Here is the input.
Amino acid sequence: MLNEPIAPPAKAGWPLHLVPAGESPAGELAELIGSLAEAAPPRVRARLRVLLESAAAEQAGADTAGPLEAAVHPPAELAARLIADGTAPPHVEPLLAQLYVVAVLQSGPHGQAELTETLAGYGPETLVAPCPSGAVALIPDDDGDRSARIVQELGRRLRGRVWCAVAGRARAEIPDGYREAVDVLKLAKAAGSEPGVYGRDDFLVEYAVSQHEAIADNLVEIIRPLMASTVLRETLGVLIRADYNRSRAAKDLYIHRSTLDYRLRRIEKITGHNPMTGRGAQLLGAAMTVYASRNSA
Here is the structure.
C-alpha cells in the first residue's frame, strides 16, 4: 500500500550509531568534510558526500566500524531515515540540502528497476529509497526555486508511464511532505487520472476534504448508495472523466444521449445532487474520489 512505512534496507557494516569525529585521522577527516560542505555549492557538496561514502565503503570490511563508515549512510538508508523523522546523522547534515522535493512514484508494471534508472539522472545528491509500491526520491531544491523545473523534468523523464506525486518541504519537514505526496498519489489513482506527475494543487478540493474526516465521512455516505449500482457508478465516473461533457460521455459509454440523461436523473434521485450543476458536479466528483481513495488497495 502507498502508506506503508519504508523499511531501511539491511546492509552489514552500516550501523546507525556514530563514532565521534576526532578520535582518529579518519574521524577528523569526516568532520572536516562536513565543515567544508556547509558553505559548498550543491555540486561540490554532492561530490564530498560521494567521496565520504567511497571512503566509508573501503572500511566496511573491517571488523569494527570506522568513523568514516559511521558518519555516512547509504542513500536508501539515509532517505528512509529522513522520511521517518526528518533527521540525519550530525556528520551528514552539512552534506544535505535544506529544501527537497519529495517524489513518491508508483511503478505499476514497469517495476522498480526502471524507476531507479529514471531517478539516477538527478545526480548523487538525490536520495532514492524503495517502497512497497515503487520508490521515493528526495530531490534537492537548494535555491527554493527549482520545484517547478524538477516537476517538469520528472514529467519528461517518466513520459507518462508511472504515477508520481510531489511535495516540496524543508529537510526537517520531509516526513510531512512524504505523507502529503502519498495522499495526493492515492487521490490521483482514485480519480482515474492517467499516469503523470501530480501535486496537491491538482486535487485541492479532494485533498482538503480527505484531510477533514467528518466531511469526508459525509461525502462517502452521499455516494455510498450509488456504489451498489455498477451501471450508475460507471456512468458517473465516465461523466467526470469526460469533464461533464454529456455528448462525449454518451459516446464513451456507447449509449444514446437520452439514455445518459435518464441515468443522470437516477443519480440525482439517489444522491440528492444533480451532477450537471456546478455544485453537484464538484460535490459528487469529490465524493467519488474520496470513496475510491478510502477503498483502494
